[in-house]
Amino acid sequence: MKYVLVCLTACLFFAAPAMADDSAELYAKSCKGCHGADGSKVIMGMTRPINAMPMEEVKAALDGYKAGTYGGQKKVIMERTVKPLSQEQLDALAAYVDSL
Ligand code: HEC
Questions:
Q1: Residue of 46, 80, 81 with the most ligand 1 atoms within 8 Å of its CB, for mutation
Q2: Which residues, including other chains, have CB under 8 Å from residue 63's CB and lie 6 or more apart?
Q3: Ligand 1 within 6 A of 35 CB?
Q4: Helices 2-30 & 87-99 angle (0-180, nearest 10)
Q5: Residue 8: which H helix or E strand, with range?
């Protein structure tokens, strides 16, 4: 039992920073170019700075773009961006954007 607990603690300890790194990398690769390193860029005067959006709204937006149920005139750009990403990646990105 003790052994299991030690393992669980160690796994959580190592898994959490690894996940943060992954989403930071993914953001830098897939989002930064348009939304800015800190998520504050307003694109063509039509988006909100995503770093100022509550996490639930970022998540709802990303889920909606993936499902094709959210967005404005330029939603195709975002739909293409999020389509290849998994639900876990979108959740991690929403959390990462919230931390910016
Ligand atoms: C090629 C440029 C581009 C890239 C790359 C990009 N976005 Fe966007 N993003 C946009 C545009 C343009 C919009 C507005 C789309 C619309 O009309 O709905 C937008 C909208 C959004 C919104 C909703 C903003 C609002 O006001 O409702 C969120 C959240 C968002 N992007 C997050 C991301 C994340 C996270 C990534 C990386 C996975 C990303 N974007 C990558 C251009 C981009």
A1: 81
A2: 70, 90
A3: yes
A4: 80
A5: helix 2-30
Please indicate whether residue 75, judged by its CB atom, sits closer than 6 Å to ligand 1.
yes
pLDDT tens digit string along 23-63? 999 999 999 999 999 999 998 888 999 999 999 999 999 99
Average of per-residue pLDDT values in the chain = 87
Read off the tokens for 63: 């889920």
In short, whether 41's Cβ falls inside 6 Å of ligand 1 is: no
Q: Is the pLDDT of residue 97 over 60?
A: yes
Domain that holds residue 85: 2-99
Tell me how far the alpha carbon of residue 31 lies from the centroid of ligand 1, in angstroms.
7
Distance CA 65, CA 72 (A): 10
